[in-house]
Design a protein that fits this description.
Strand order of the largest sheet: 1-2-3
Helix content: 25-40%
Structural class: alpha+beta
Length: 115
């Protein structure tokens, strides 16, 4: 199963969201074509009601632990408690910052550590 589809499935099962967007932003980064390493997630869930942003993000990181340990390099999270989501139109995802070449730098560091 593709990584994006797996992330969508896990978040749907774990958070039962009112709204969910999983955007693959890997193409904006210095990774091979077709990679699934960088994602932006916009999610609205009643499971976030009463939770701090840190707790909301930890919920997502817990659900996606395996993916984060096995190839997913970055998650940009926009979490919204259901009680605060009044607009019937879906939220507009914030734009991701420009890539600074982190994965290329990390790869060079790993290669130099092997020597």
């Amino acid at each position: 199963m593709a990584v994006r589809a797996l992330i969508t499935s896990k978040l749907t099962q774990g958070l039962v969201p009112l709204h969910l967007e999983v955007l693959n932003e890997s193409g904006q980064h210095n990774v091979p074509k077709g990679s699934e390493t960088h994602f932006r997630i916009v999610v609205v869930s009643d499971k976030f009601d009463g939770a701090t942003k840190l707790q909301q993000h930890r919920m997502i990181h817990g659900l996606l632990k395996h993916e984060l340990e096995n190839g997913v390099h970055a998650l940009a999270l926009q979490t919204i408690p259901a009680s605060k989501w009044k607009d019937p139109n879906p939220p507009v995802p914030k734009e991701s910052p420009q890539c600074l070449g982190g994965m290329k730098r990390e790869q060079k560091e790993r290669e130099s550590n092997k020597e």
